[in-house]
Amino acid sequence: MKEKCIYCSKDKAEEEFSKREHVIPQCFGKFTPGNLLLYKSVCDECNQFFGNNIELYLGRDTIEGVVRYIHGIKPRENPKKHKRLKFKIPCGELKGMIVIPRYSGVQGENDIDPVLQAGFFNKQTQEYDYFEPNDIPHAKELTSKGYEIKDKKIPLIAKDDNEMQSLLRVFSDKGMNIKPEEDLEWPEEVKKRNQTLVEGIIKIDSVVYRGICKIAFNYLACIVGKKFALREEFDGIRKFIRFGEGDSKEYFGVNEPPILDIDRKLQSQNIKVTNGHLIILGWKGTSLISRVSIFNLKTYLVKFCNNFNGVLIPIKSGHHFDVDSKEVSKLIAVNRRLLP
Ligand SMILES: [Zn+2]
After folding, report:
1. Ligand 1 center from residue 5 Cα (angstroms)
2. Of 202, 224, 258, which one is at a domain's C-terminal end?
3. What is the CA(52)–ligand 1 centre distance, in A?
4. What distance in angstroms lies between residue 10's CA and the mean position of ligand 1's atoms?
5. 176 and 207, same structural domain?
6. What's the 276 CA to ligand 1 centre distance in angstroms?
7. Domain identity same for 187 and 89
8. In angstroms, what is the span from residue 12 Cα to ligand 1's centroid?
9. Are β-strands 11-13 and 2-4 bridged in parallel, bridged antiparallel, or unpaired?
């Protein structure tokens, strides 16, 4: 018996569909029982590809990937560097300092580590801005942008001597002659746990878009069925997810309002009723769309197709993944504005 893969569209032997596909990647929690799973829908080759590429980045380089530490979800390994994310301390004496959040093993907390960096005092904002070695501008540029490079202390944050030496080399390359006056230690107050006060600067790119689209497409296949997901109207998004083909703007949108009606009402007070994952699916005219929110942080829009040619069968579905109890439950459309 042959099966068709919902991503590469290839007909393959049943044995080549040996793995179950989790609608929500396991890096965002293991949900039991009643987890949403796909069987004989994603071939092993595609499954492997997604695991090694898309999902790896979803876990490592997204704000959602970092927030999972706080929920006690351990990453396979602590990332050495975030390619798409930069976290900064948002207030206090060390405001602006660049850090990497770490899994701490304690529920509700995460550790942070410093990165190699130097701070420059900006006369206009009267604040320090921190730069990683590759981002340190030339002395002339710093001066022209209002940074004080002569009379103000330049904090150099380095783990060890080697790092410090490499940082000093960058300074001399950029036309500055700086000598470290004292050994700058990573301050104790920052080292201690429960430092969740970091804000992320996020650069989402195609890999992340594809990862979110895949969650939505998995959900579509899970709720409406594999046969429906294989319709030609979805060939565009299928190729975008699997091969990165096409324009992400056609399929993906950011900065959507919260999924739950109650969260929208409470939005101005910064209150949310859940920190679990939310996903909904439904029609908007002849477009089939989904909204996805991981940890109920940001809401993403996924557009499966613009003009559906077939009969518009009723599709309206929503699920909540509780990251604490690990339960998966159906969202009940108590509000008619579930899909505005
Ligand atoms: Zn495949």
Report:
1. 5
2. 202
3. 14
4. 6
5. no
6. 29
7. yes
8. 8
9. antiparallel
CA of 207 relative to ligand 1 center, distance in Å: 18
- Check: CB of residue 54 under 8 Å from CB of residue 60: no
Q: In this structure, how many other beta carbons lie within 10 angstroms of the beta carbon of residue 91?
A: 9
Ligand 1 mean position to 229 CA, how many Å?
13
Which residues is 147 bridged to in the sheet?
122
- 64 belongs to a structural domain: no
How far apart are alpha carbons 217 and 170 in whole angstroms?
A: 46
Number of domains within the chain: 2
Task: Please list the pLDDT of the chain residue by residue as tens digits (340 residues).
Answer: 899 999 999 999 999 999 999 999 998 999 987 789 999 999 999 999 999 989 888 887 777 887 777 777 777 666 666 666 677 777 677 778 887 777 767 666 667 777 888 899 999 988 889 999 999 999 999 999 999 888 778 888 887 788 888 988 999 999 988 776 655 555 555 554 444 445 555 566 788 899 999 999 999 999 999 999 999 999 999 999 999 999 999 999 988 888 888 888 887 776 778 889 999 999 999 999 999 999 988 899 999 998 898 888 899 999 999 988 999 999 876 544 444 4
CA distance 89 to 318: 36
- Do residues 198 and 210 share a domain? no
**Residue 144 domain boundaries:** 85-202
The answer to whether residue 228 is domain-embedded is yes
Separation CA 243–CA 204 (nearest Å)? 18
Element (H, E) at 87: strand 85-88
304 Cα: distance to centroid of ligand 1 (angstroms) = 18
Centroid of ligand 1 to alpha carbon of 224 (angstroms): 19
Ligand 1 center–CA 105 separation, angstroms: 36
Instruction: Based on the fold, state whether residues 264 and 326 are members of the same structural domain.
Output: yes
Distance 3 CA to ligand 1 centre (A): 10
Q: Give the distance (Å) from ligand 1 centre to CA of residue 9.
A: 6
